[in-house]
Amino acid sequence: MISRCYAHADGGSATVSGLGATGGLVGANNSVRKKQVPMIRFCWAEVNVSSTHPNHSGINPADNGNPYNIKYGGIVGCNENGTTFDSHASGNISEGDRVGGLAGCTIDGAIIRCWAAANVSQGISSTAWEGGIGGLTGRVDGKLPPGLGGFQSSGSVLNSYYDNGFSINSAGGPIQTIGSTSSNAMLNILSTYVNWDFVNTWVWNAENPGYPYLSGNTPILYHYKTFSSGNWSNTGNWQRSLEKNVAPYSATTIYPGFTNSNSIIVDTDMTLDVTRDLDQMTINAGKSLTTNSDTRMTIENGRDTDLENNGTLTMNGLMEVGQSAEFVNNGAIELNGYLVNSGTITWGAGSSMTCSPTSILAFNAAEAQATGNGFPDEISNLEIDNYYGLTFTEPFTINGSLIMVKGSYSGSFYTDGYQAAAISFLEIGENDKLISDFSATSIASPDLYPDFVGREWIISGYIDDSTEANPKKTLSFYWTAADDESFDWTEITPALYVGISTTGITGTFSNNDGIGKLVVSYTFPDASKNAAKETFKIGLNEEGGTLPVELSAFTISLTPQNEVKLQWATQSETNVMGFQIYRATVNDLEQSQKISSMISATNTSQMQNYLWIDKENLASGRYYYWLESVDYDGSSDYYGPVNIFLEDHSADISTIPPVSCISKNFPNPFNPDTSIIYGLGKAGPVSLEVYNIRGQRVRKLVDAEQQEGWYKLIWDGSDDRQQSLPSGVYYLRLNAEGKHYLRKTTLMK
């Protein structure tokens, strides 16, 4: 923590310059340590901040995360994962790609009760990297830090302002306007500063109007208690004391929150009408706290118990139990909104929770979680968004759906529905019929193809027939273009095959952007088949049906000599004379030219692999290739196109000495192409591959021996079969010098 520090030049001006995260007082207010949040409080800076980087642009190959790494702010350069509150800055802030009057960036961080009055000027366009510019902060993104939410909320700016009378000069990227306030309001209107403490922390000089400035006194963090019912933001409902729950109490000019109180006692019926981060709060027995539907209440991780409910807590909006925070419920919860547990909820004896049909209880933490003893017997919807998994301590019932975002679960439960299209490629509709001992998983099984789609599902569970006369459920199965080899389903009906059955179950089929979906009605086993487990596969709607594949692969890549290499494979060949190759610079077969002689076929029932290299010295640009299969009867079929972009790799990409890394890819996000720059610190074997979020390799871009140097290529967003990939997050993986280098990129269509 940095507290009560300042940067100021007596009798003149001063400039702080640097390369990287640079601020008038602090370079970087960030940390990657779990459960620890760095803080800047009660600080100010009146200095200029600028860059020492040559031309204020260019890459820094030593930083794989942000090769520009140029963040400049009036008080702090990088406020990533950190919190800056009750502080201010003024001066001229210039150059860099993330530039703000107070903070260069606030990624996964928070700015609370701060102001800035500064001219800001950006030196690098935001289109070159993930930059931004603003009068208060250049970029606000990501999650709040632990103890300040840490789940869905974005990097936060709360009750903070900048004077929009100063200039903001962008180099081409978007301008962040959060906190914008006119100079007249900042100079002359005290009410502009919502929930600022002008008794202990800030000073307002009404006789000589100016910006608020920090008091020289050490602020006192009082204990707050309600004495009348009403809205949280009405300061007349609150009083404060020097000791918790001990008189004398006195009136207050602010309402409590995490950064301005020692403890909070709700001793009346209150409505939370504002978004609040809270800590050390108790709801007394017989009293209530109701949150509005448009508010967020975050319980932060502090000392002792962070929230103790002995009365009634009604949640109509979003409530977050922050990372490692502790919520003890001894009373009643009425859940009508979204409760995200990123910490621990303890269920006291006699406690209860009722849930509306649309409400969701979510588990999300940086460690494994458990529902705990005393967990409610019934809830509406349960969401698991925890990579480390969730344990169901005691059996319970989900009257709505189990929603899987990531992670796993263990333990006994009942559920009506299941939503896990992104994990298990499966959804089960709700119809008030509970499934017992349920589990589901999906496995990519390419060996099933071409008899079936290359994916199978394993589903366990039964519906007790003594209480459910008709145990049918609507099941939706999903698969990708990679699973069915981009099979053309036009006028062909897929069917679901259960276990060893040779009779398929038909339903409703659709295919959108390469994602196949089959919706069927399925009868679950009854109680006589307790814990029944079945395997499910997708095939043609006919006994012994096989997906009719002739050409099973047609791919394109570059050789180490920068020549185009075409490869294809056939499942079987009959009466085939051979193959011919066509090339064009546009995606039009009519404009293509035949560039090969006849490549003889083998005419065998076994799989055959073919390779052909285009030896022509081609100029830089994109090229399209088609494969023609010619039969002895003179008929032919065309396949493709596949395409590739040729780049002159001998060009000097950078004057910086090469190091092994993925320097950058741009644009990012991209559509349809992205340029990738990577380096090799020494000569040797190198591969560059693309993986999806499930860890499956979708494209091999480079596989060769290469010399030391910088390289640049363009990826067109397609897989090894030249099929366009869907929108989403992908990972570039460089293997060189025995090490691996990763970079995340987003394809956005």
Please tell me the overall pLDDT. Answer: 84
Percentage of residues in DSSP E strands: over 45%
Residues in helix, %: under 10%
Flag low-confidence runs: 145-154, 543-549
Number of separate strands? 70
| Backbone CA Rg | 31 Å
Q: What's the overall geometry? A: flat
Q: Quickly count the helices.
A: 1
First-residue to last-residue Cα separation: 43 Å
Structural class determined from secondary elements:
mainly beta
Largest sheet: 18 strands, mixed
Descriptive notes:
The protein has 749 residues and is mostly beta strands. Among the domains are: 2-192, no CATH class; 420-547, no CATH class; 551-646, Immunoglobulin-like (Sandwich); 661-747, Immunoglobulin-like (Sandwich), CATH 2.60.40. It is 1% helix and 48% strand. The protein is built from 1 helix and 70 strands. The strands form 12 sheets. The protein has an 18-stranded mixed beta sheet that branches. Strands 1, 2, 6, 7, 11, 14, 17, 18, 19 and 21 form a 10-stranded parallel beta sheet that branches. The protein has an 8-stranded mixed beta sheet with strand order 27-26-24-28-31-34-37-40, with no helix packed on it. A hairpin with a 2-residue loop joins strand 69 (728-736) and strand 70 (739-747). It is flat. Mean pLDDT is 84; it is low at 145-154 and 543-549.
List its salient traits.
mainly beta, Immunoglobulin-like, 749 residues
